[in-house]
Amino acid sequence: LGVTYGPAFWIHATYSYVLLLLGTILLLQAFRRAPRLYRGQVGVMLVGALFPWIANALHIFGLGPVQYLDLTPFAFMLTGIAIAWGLFRFQLLDVVPAARDTVVEGMGDGVIVLDAQQRIVDLNPAAEAILGLTISDAVGQSWTCAVPNWLGDLNGALAQVPSPPSPCGVERQAQISDGEGPIPRTFEVQISALAQQGGRIAGCLILLRDITEHKRVEETLSLARDQALEASRLKTEFLANVSHDLRTPLNAIQGFADMLHDGVYGSLTEAQYRKVGRIAANARQLTSMVDDLLDQAKIEAGKLEIEEVPFSPAGLMEEVETIMAPQARAKGLQFQTEISDDLPASLSGDPQRIRQVLVNLVNNACKFTQEGHIRLRAYRPDADHWALQVSDTGEGIPKEAHHYIFDPFRRVDGSPTRVHSGVGLGLALVSRLVALMGGHIELDSELGSGSTFTVILPLDPVQAGL
Ligand code: ADP
Question: How far apart are CA 107 and CA 128, in angstroms?
Answer without folding.
Answer: 12
